[in-house]
Specification:
The complex is a heterodimer of chains A (about 260) and B (about 230). Chain A is mostly helical and about 260 residues long. Helices cover about 85% and strands about 0% of the residues of chain A. Chain A has helices at about 5-30, 30-40, 45-50, 55-80, 80-100, 105-110, 120-150, 150-155, 160-185, 190-200, 205-230, 240-260. Chain A is globular and about 50 Å long. Chain B contains 8 helices and 9 strands. The longest helix of chain B has 18 residues, at about 155-170. By secondary structure, chain B is an alpha/beta fold. Chain B has 2 domains: about 1-70 and about 140-230, P-loop containing nucleotide triphosphate hydrolases (Rossmann fold); about 80-140, no CATH class. In chain B, helix 5 packs parallel to helix 6. A 6-stranded mixed β-sheet of chain B has the order 5-6-7-3-8-9, sandwiched between helices. Chain B has helices at about 45-55, 90-95, 100-105, 110-115, 125-135, 155-170, 180-190, 210-220, and strands at about 5-20, 20-30, 35-40, 60-65, 70-75, 140-145, 175-180, 190-195, 200-205. The interface of A and B includes residues 142, 146, 148 and 205 of A.
């Protein structure tokens, strides 16, 4: 196994795990498309990084971070759903990003990921950020669940719902920015949606659901990277392979659920 | 003359306004410890808003004074657990993991299978009992229930109210509940506070059977000028 593949796998496992964990909440909140749409908001930031010669992921994260705060504030003031607000801005961001990136190779890397170029520093950074994101979400996970069941119940228990929503959005931005390295901005929504959806098919309690969504996220990302490396097709980026492996896992969970329901 | 220890809640000139509308206008009432107060009135009368104000969930004018060391258990009317894979035990553990068994036993839910069941897979009656367990798990001395038997069949409704009364008596709990059911108000509360934007009646619950009073409560609002009575 080459160093590049090893670093890619470590990054994939860390980011897949964190994205699956955070995505679990997104799927329950019926905000699955928010994660997807939010990822496209990163594109102008990636473009700035490419144009000005700094790490594009940092640019992507900066854009995601600012967008998350703006989306949260618009939501707080207007009471519009996050989905509506994100939907209103993401296509613009995508269009602006594509116009800004003139280098086609860089555009492809931004759109479909470049896990093959991950360095040791990138991998260590991905692990640290993923651990921090998962740890912080773990603290507020149950509070978020209570606010989903009833916002009034949450507030009456002293939970500051707007504040935990903001923290959650910021952490999603962080993980989505990292995920762009694995699958690219076009496909990173997969990492926060599909593993959690697969986990939901197999879970009747929260503990199992949160663990399964994280583990399936890590398995999808790492197996996709591994398969892509095994196929060794230079023209095929790993991102789409990661998505295809993840969707196969998702389909398998549908089959298991169906068999359980039918008592086969 | 009431002493401070007798009165657990004193509300004076409580007013809640939305941008273009006054929801509650100068509501005043007092409540003794251990009393069950039914909050009644037509739809849109401000019953739920009164609860929100009592829980400090909405801005208000006027005064809400709770006695010292009051611990409130609250169950809202609307919950949306159907799609969330959370078991009964996990749900109650969020509030107090050490007392899940006690709380479930106290509301008559003793089956081990039920504890593992998803919240969204419970029947209406079971869900309401779990919510009451949620409200009483931290041994509160005040309970606020917004229509505690919504979506529950008649037999379960009676059983839930009997259980509530038992819990209240055993732990000297003061209860405020919103209800539309005349039978429930008559049999399971001591006093009633009728709202229609303002207080239209405050007095003993047995009077709910008086037809003139019912038409006054559910008809055109006639506000009480001043209310010094203690429930």
């Amino acid at each position: 196994m080459t160093d590049g593949l090893l670093f890619g796998l470590v990054t994939g496992i860390a980011v897949g795990f964190a994205a699956g964990y955070l995505g679990g909440i997104m799927v329950l909140e019926k905000m699955a498309l928010v994660g997807d749409a939010l990822s496209h908001v990163a594109l102008p930031g990636l473009a700035l990084g490419i144009l000005l010669g700094f790490n594009p992921i940092l640019g992507g994260f900066a854009f995601l971070f600012v967008s998350a705060v703006v989306i949260w504030e618009i939501g707080r003031v207007t009471k519009l759903s996050f989905e509506t607000i994100v939907g209103a801005v993401f296509t613009l961001a995508l269009a602006v990003g594509i116009l800004m990136i003139r280098d086609l190779d860089a555009l492809e890397a931004a759109l479909f990921g470049d896990i093959g170029t991950v360095s040791l520093v990138d991998a260590v950074l991905a692990v640290i950020v993923s651990v921090v994101a998962v740890s912080l979400i773990r603290i507020i996970y149950k509070q978020i669940v209570i606010s989903m069941i009833s916002e009034e119940l949450a507030i009456s228990e002293g939970i500051n719902v707007p504040r935990i929503n903001l923290l959650y959005l910021l952490l999603v931005s962080l993980v989505v920015a990292l995920g762009i390295k694995v699958t690219g901005t076009l496909l990173v929504g997969f990492l926060v949606v599909t593993p959690a959806a697969a986990a939901k098919n197999l879970s009747s309690n929260l503990f199992r659901y949160s663990i399964l969504s994280s583990v399936l996220g890590a398995i999808s990302a790492s197996s996709g990277i591994f398969v892509s490396s095994y196929l060794n097709l230079p023209s095929v980026p790993p991102g789409p392979i990661v998505v295809i492996v993840g969707v196969i896992i998702f389909l398998a969970t549908i089959l298991i659920k169906w068999k359980t329901k039918m008592n086969i | 003359m009431e002493t401070l220890d007798d009165v657990i809640l004193k509300v004076t000139d409580l007013t809640v306004q939305l941008p273009n509308q006054t929801i509650l206008d100068k509501i005043s009432f007092q409540l003794r410890r251990g009393t069950t107060l039914a909050v009644i009135g037509p739809n849109g009368a401000g019953k739920t808003m009164l609860f929100r104000a009592l829980l400090n969930l909405v801005p208000y004018k006027g005064k809400i004074e709770w006695a010292n060391k009051v611990k409130i258990g609250y169950v809202p009317q609307n919950l949306f657990p159907s799609d969330i894979p959370i078991s009964v035990k996990e749900f109650l553990s969020i509030k107090n993991a050490a007392k899940v068994e006690n709380a479930l036993n106290s509301v008559g839910l003793r089956s081990e299978d039920l504890r593992k069941k998803r919240l969204g897979a419970l029947s209406g009656g079971q869900l309401r009992r779990v919510l009451i367990a949620w409200a009483v798990i931290d041994s509160p001395n005040v309970l606020l229930f917004d229509e505690p038997t919504t979506g529950v069949d008649l037999d379960s409704e009676e059983a839930i109210y009997r259980m509530l009364i038992e819990l209240e008596k055993k732990n000297n709990i003061t209860t405020l509940l919103i209800s539309h059911d005349v039978h429930i108000i008559r049999h399971y509360s001591d006093f009633m506070l009728a709202l229609n934007g303002c207080v239209t009646f405050f007095g003993e619950s047995k009077r709910i059977m008086e037809p003139e009073l019912q038409s006054m409560i559910y008809g055109e609002p006639v506000c009480m000028e001043h209310n010094d009575e203690v429930g």
